[in-house]
Design brief:
The chain is mainly β. The chain folds into two domains: about 30 residues; about 190 residues, no CATH class. It has one helix and twelve strands. A hairpin with a 2-residue loop joins strand 5 and strand 6. The N terminus is likely disordered.
Length: about 230
């Protein structure tokens, strides 16, 4: 009889312990901050304006020339709309100017976040620019929704501080979109995003090289870098 009471008391203590543990777990979950998916890296804000400095070089083997172009691009988020799949989408108008010339309209771009993917529609092609939540070395097919060959985007840097000119950025991530380098060809595409801004750097190099000297024969390279944001 005594052993039976001891067993009963032990069972009651175990039950109380389990109930306390369950209450503590629920309270902790309730008070825990929400998971940060990293959506701030693909910032979409109505009426925001982002200006980029562009430095572009074109290599021409036909007349053996190297030409450099410098200009600015400005992206303005002008409105929102619901796309055919029911997603809230942001319309961006892109403008270009050289020096102090007036801004000239270039194209319409649209961006949205759908099913934990940051998508961009530009020149009638849809790209998956980012995925959420971010993780170092996480990869995905950036060309999943267009007719181009698969490009496996990879996050190569995450939550890194970066200085661009006089701007100190607390958190940036870098996506390597494509990287193929050999003796005759060099193709590298990389984008860097900053929290609460979005794209801050895009670097592209697509050139053919002389196999014996390594000299660039033809192709292009450019760097698109944040100049101002508001």
């Amino acid at each position: 009889m005594k052993n039976r009471n001891l067993f009963k008391n032990a069972s009651q203590v175990s039950l109380i312990f389990l109930l306390c543990l369950l209450i503590f777990s629920c309270t902790k979950e309730k008070n825990s901050p929400p998971l940060d998916l990293g959506l701030a890296y693909y910032s979409l804000k109505l009426n925001s304006e982002t200006v980029y400095s562009m430095d572009s070089t074109v290599y021409n083997d036909f007349n053996n020339t190297i030409t450099n172009y410098q200009f600015q691009l400005k992206d303005i988020v002008t409105e929102t709309f619901t796309d055919l799949e029911g997603n809230k989408t942001y319309k961006i108008e892109r403008y270009k100017r050289t020096g102090t010339d007036p801004w000239v309209f270039q194209r319409i771009i649209s961006r949205n976040v759908s099913n934990n993917r940051a998508e961009e529609l530009i020149d009638n092609r849809r790209y998956v620019r980012l995925v959420f939540p971010q993780q170092l070395q996480r990869s995905w097919n950036g060309n999943l929704y267009n007719d181009q060959d698969p490009w496996i985007y990879t996050i190569t840097a995450l939550d890194k501080k970066l200085t661009i000119g006089t701007k100190n950025l607390d958190s940036t991530l870098t996506v390597q979109q494509y990287n193929e380098v050999n003796l005759i060809r060099e193709d590298t595409y990389n984008e860097t995003y900053a929290k609460h801004i979005g794209l801050v750097i895009k670097e592209v190099k697509a050139v053919d090289k002389d196999i014996s000297t390594g000299r660039i024969k033809k192709g292009f390279a450019y760097k698109m870098q944040l100049f101002s944001y508001q």
